[in-house]
Structure formats: structure tokens, C-alpha cells
Amino acid sequence: MPVSPDEYRLMDVQQGGCCFYCGEPVGAKATFDHLIPLAYGGLDAAPNVVLAHRRCNQRKADRLPTPEEIDRFVTQRRRSQLGVWPPLLALRDAEPGDEWITVARAIAGL
Ligand SMILES: [Zn+2]
Question: Which intervals hold domain HNH nuclease (predicted)?
Fold first, then answer.
């Protein structure tokens, strides 16, 4: 379980009870989506996780989040103890075409 019950409640409040991707109410059927996918070394903890419908989570699959999505995430997490995983900030500022290498370097701490 990457997210504690307290963290889950905080996420639900910050997202206004809605799915991160489609903005529709998500309720008790929320799934945990990793903004930077696990397959690419994404952190399995709250600073890299949002609540999403199962279908929206599956649709996102293993793509990286867009700069708009990262900005929205950062705004939701402002003044929150849940935090933002630093590689997401590096990705937001990546040059177009350099997204993957930027993420890999940020995760490696280079
Ligand atoms: Zn959704």
C-alpha cells in the first residue's frame, strides 16, 4: 500500500473528490495512479501518486505526465504535507524531446 489512509483522505480533499485526469467525481472506486510510472522508476508513494478512475488510470498507462498535469498537481499540493516528488519538477522544465532522459537523470540524482 503506497499511500496511508490519512494520505488518501488528504488527496481526496485536495482533488475535490474528483479523478485527477477527467475531473469527474471518483468516490470510493479511486485507484492510485503514479504520475511518473513505476515502470520508469517512479516513486511508489504519495508525492508521485494521484487518485483516478480505473479507466482513466488504464488510459494513461505508461506515458509521462504533461507539463499542464504537473502544474495542476503542484497547485493541488501547495501547502500540503503530501509533497511533490522532485523529478516531477525537473520533468516540467524539460526541453521538448528530452523528457525521458530528464526523468532518468533526476531519479538517479544526477
Ligand atoms: Zn477519471
Answer: 7-58
- The residue ranges of every structural domain in the chain are 5-108
Contact 16, 51 (CB under 8 A): no
pLDDT tens sequence across 13-59: 999 999 999 999 998 889 999 999 999 999 999 999 999 999 999 99
Residue 53 backbone dihedrals phi, psi, to 5 degrees:
-60, 150
Tell how far the Cα of 70 is from the centroid of ligand 1, in angstroms: 16
Residue 102, C-alpha cell as written in the block: 530528464
Q: What is the pLDDT of residue 1?
A: 63
Cα(53) to centroid(ligand 1), Å: 4
Centre of ligand 1 from the C-alpha of residue 52, in Å? 5
